[in-house]
Amino acid sequence: MERNPDIQFRSPEEIRHYQEQRLAETLAYLKAHSRFYQRMFEENGIDISTIRTIDDLQRLPVTTKTDLQTHNKDFICVPKNKIIDYVTTSGTLGDPVTFVLTDGDLDRLAYNEFLSYTTAGCTADDVLQLMTTIDRRFMAGLAYFLGARELGMGVARVGNGIPELQWDTVRRIHPTCGMVVPSFLLKLIDFAEKNGIDHNACSMQKCICIGEALRQPGTFELNTLGRRIHEKWPALQMHSTYASTEMQSSFTECGHFCGGHLQPELIIVEFLDDNNLPVAEGEAGEVTVTTLGVEGMPLLRFKTGDICYHYSEPCACGRNTVRLSSILGRKGQMIKYKGTTLYPPALFDILDHMVKIRNYVIEVYTNDIGTDEILVRVGTEEASDALAKEIKDMFRSKVRVAPSIKFESPDYIAKIQMPAMSRKAIKFIDLR
User: Fold this and answer.
1) Which tens digits make up the pLDDT trace of 327-342?
2) Does one domain contain both 150 and 243?
3) What is the value of pTM for the model shown?
4) Would you list the DSSP string of 342-404?
5) Scanning 34, 96, 100, 262, which has its CA 20 to 30 A from the CA of 379?
């Protein structure tokens, strides 16, 4: 693919013109190679030559996760002998979906992460400690490695977990940057404190954080998880990055920490309401993506299910790209509890604030009158009526309602959080 890393610093008008040129290429590719989109265009009487602008996208149907699950193979645009890598989505909202990547897609994936690293200020002089899995059909782990190779960074592929091995790697290799799920940083800090390691004096200067929000949507201030890490490890810079298997692209924070930057070479993003209409800045919208330059399984107007805010004013870093807030939650995980609309991240933020809670799982189910009910399974060694009251009072003060609380052993909760087939810790279980 042709590369144009400077486009993110061009004027909004130049960025838009560039993306519209790439959109025309994508539509032509889909019409030529995708059974799913060929059928969509024909059934809806769509002449792709009339889709010239990003605004024109509103005339096209959206693509949903159900479409991907129901017609998975119809999205594949290449013969089997062109497929190099097979991956699956995490299956957060249902059965995982298979995705295929060509050699060109792997090059594109490497370039995306190269852009992500450079957005976060990394250079070839950095050494990356990769604290995520690179196997288990996980696209992102491979992407992180390929992007580091593209940039010229050294990489220590440690994988997830095992704090002792992580700190041994820091001691031996002196990495300057980590790729990590942020809650794991608390485990690293805890291990360091118990074993006489001065984590604030170590070589690690920054981490690119995946899978969990660090900042409050709409304000960019650190949330409870972000504050807890920062209070213990103030020398560490934390950059959030947001991505998904479906979009094969990421949005990463620069050094001004005011939202994840769009990479306009790789993806077009819209923010839509329940009627698939664009929302204004300051309104929550569903992240909806059109991939650019993908060969294996490109997507057109794919609704990710992730809800966030967006910002279009120029960033102090010089980029003029759209920025995304932290994710408010997933559309399919919205909870209507006692008249209040909630998303799991708001509940996580409350529980992460409480030092007596070691770990937790939130379960949502339908009660006998057909409405949502919330049970929080709390892992702690300090179970008591007083702690249950403290937790409920905290919920009432933050979100106006209090869930049911059940105390469990931290070991039991840890087993629930990491079932055998999971690539990520599970903190929310939807039983509705």
Assistant:
1) 888 887 878 888 777 8
2) yes
3) 0.81
4) E-HHHHHHHHHT-TT--EEEEEEEE-TTSSEEEEEEEE-S---HHHHHHHHHHHHHHHS---E
5) 96
Same-domain status, 241 and 375: no
Q: Domain check: are 300 and 397 in the same one?
A: no
Residue 2 CB neighbour total at 10 angstroms: 6
Same domain, 70 and 10: yes
| Beta strand extents in 26-113 (DSSP E only) | 83-88, 98-102
For residue 210, which amino acid is it?
A: I
Q: Which helix (H) or strand (E) holds 23?
A: helix 12-33
Same domain, 322 and 376: no
| Helix, strand, coil percentages for the chain (3-state, nearest 5) | 35, 25, 40
Of 330, 354, 380, which closes a domain? 330
pLDDT tens figures, 217-246: 888 999 888 999 999 999 999 999 999 999
Contacts of 54 (CB under 8 A, 6+ apart): 16, 19, 20, 23, 268, 270
Q: Residue 260 pairs with which residues in a beta bridge?
A: 253, 324
Domain enclosing residue 394, as ranges: 334-430
